């Protein structure tokens, strides 16, 4: 059984992942701060730590959502509706409060291993990431899919596969990225509107489908 979603769904998913990546948050702030404070190696190690956290969130989401699908297709539909409402809230929150990007030069003692653990810890302890994976991934899997577990796992791995190289590129161009984001509030606001528009569309689409 194929774990690949259809082409339009995959394209939409990757576009959503890209918007999520460029939207500043705790992971991006920490990565840029570590790069500026301790150099590119520290920044890349931070990216590896946050990526491992994402893989763990993916595993947890796959196990939990798959169990829900096995128990009840109706329950899965309820989860998708809750997810749609959560995505709508994210869209509204982005417009109300904007993106979060706090970058300051800092040095963490303990070497690269501690830096890696710091990246992992920031990702794992962010409740928004937990809720995001539990509500975001189901939007791209049909409840009657012959292999929902495989598709959920593929989507999670695809997110990491996209975000990891982009994160490394961000580290390599950290100074320019930081300057562009902090010095251009219109750019930041444009990202907010892009994020809100995309996830608002997803929320409306799933709600209309359920009805």
TrEMBL record:
Q: Which GO terms of the molecular function aspect are on file?
A: amino acid transmembrane transporter activity
Q: InterPro entries of this UniProt entry?
A: LeuE-type (IPR001123)
Got a GO cellular component term for this one?
plasma membrane
Q: Which Pfam families match?
A: LysE
Q: Where in the cell is it found?
A: Cell membrane
This protein's membrane topology, according to the annotation, is: Multi-pass membrane protein
Question: What keywords were assigned to this record?
Answer: Cell membrane, Membrane, Transmembrane, Transmembrane helix
Q: Main location per UniProt?
A: membrane
**Where does the sequence pass through the membrane?**
12-33, 45-69, 75-95, 116-140, 152-175, 187-208
Record-given protein name: Threonine transporter RhtB
| Lineage per the UniProt record | Bacteria, Pseudomonadati, Pseudomonadota, Alphaproteobacteria, Hyphomicrobiales
